[in-house]
Model the fold of this input.
Amino acid sequence: MVGNYAGLPLMDWSQYDTFHGDFEKCSLFIVVFGHLGFYLLMFFGFINELLFTPKVATERNREGYAPLYNSFEQLFLRYVYRRVRHCFNRPICSTPAAEVTVKERYTDDYNWTFKFTGTERRCINLGSYNYLGFAEPAGPCADAAAEAARRYGLALASSRAELGSCALHKELEETTARFLGVEAAIVFGMGFATNSLGLPGLLGPGTLALSDENNHVSLILGLRLARAAVRVFRHNDLVHLEQLARAAIAERRWTKIVIVLEGVYSMEGSIVPLQGVVALKKRLGLQLYLDEAHSVGALGAHARGVTDHCGVDPNDVDVLMGTFTKSFGAAGGYIAGSAKLIRWIRAHGHAHTYAHAMSPPMAAQVLAAMRALCTPHGLLRVRKLRDNTHYFRRRLREMGVVTYGHRDSPVVPMMVYAMSNVSATVERLTARGIAVVGVGFPATPLFKSRLRFCMSAAHNREQLDTCLAAIQEVVEELGLQYSRHR
Done:
């Protein structure tokens, strides 16, 4: 990098909207008793392991082989996670639409193993990333996917760089670029691989990445594979980001400095204050990699993501990355930006050269959904998602629970703090016909377990009221009214 950027005046952050969401802190009472309960559970688990042989495979500790788990992870998985394992990875046998069919199961050995009961439960779905409601078993999107399967087959059995490209890929890339308002785009068959295999083709030794502390594991893996130097800034803390950027520029040893962050954070429900980030990028001559996996389709008046939501020109973002798994009811991902950027990724990106191409039915599904978003009916879905999100968050706050994130974020985390509360809440809501996702360590900090509700345009107001009534009953039964803002 050249130029005396570090000598420029400090940013005046009062000019920008830097609010990224509400993160109410829990009381000291919750912290103390949460730690106490966890350590007691770990202690009794340690005693149990000494007295009884666990019903699991054990490490052979062969020379030259790294262990799969360390001792703490083994103890946690066997004696903490196993107690609530029945609330995770629950099998479903339907499309993840407004309602979902959950296959019921039971255990007769304390959650070591499970067996199906042979019965199914129809539940209102608050757990799937179906923001715009396109994950439907019937309709234009499903018809387009079926037609593509008949014409092109279910898979192309090759990478894009060899024999895995078809007319649908080219059309989808052109449509994605127009939808986002940039020059070009390239699509991939897997959203996770878009980051993990895309970043190594863009960054390398001599590059410094300034990474948000809550970035997704796909971004973290991609940065490691790229062998770029990484410095972490506090979540959405633009002052800290500016400090790290100025210090790095003053070192005068980096070929490029790239800010790596997300639009909507899937565990926190927060939204990046993008206007401020872009202003900092321009002032200091940095570059910006923006992961819009949870924001494209879900934010903005035209569903074009956090750039649309924050009023930022998408051409001011060097690399726009997103996935088709959340708002478009499909699979895969994309990178968009300048034509020069996309040519470089085609030549140097690992996913384009080695990974399996996006299946034709998925490409057709995304195309149909993206075209629908350019119609009045499609934009009605966007407004309904926003209204559902505001309504659901407001009603939760009135209950006295702690919710994280921005009011516009369709990801709504409700804090329950202890893993035992996750289990008790999920069990009771499932019995009331509500399918929810519980999240705990290691996806969250150890004592910040939560339920993560995902809003959808497919939900009607009656379904949301049914869910809220059930949540109210469970909250009062378990005493989850932790908020001090009531």
Q: What stands out?
A: Residues 54 and 78 are 8 Å apart (CA to CA). The two ends are 50 Å apart (CA to CA). The chain has a mean pLDDT of 91.
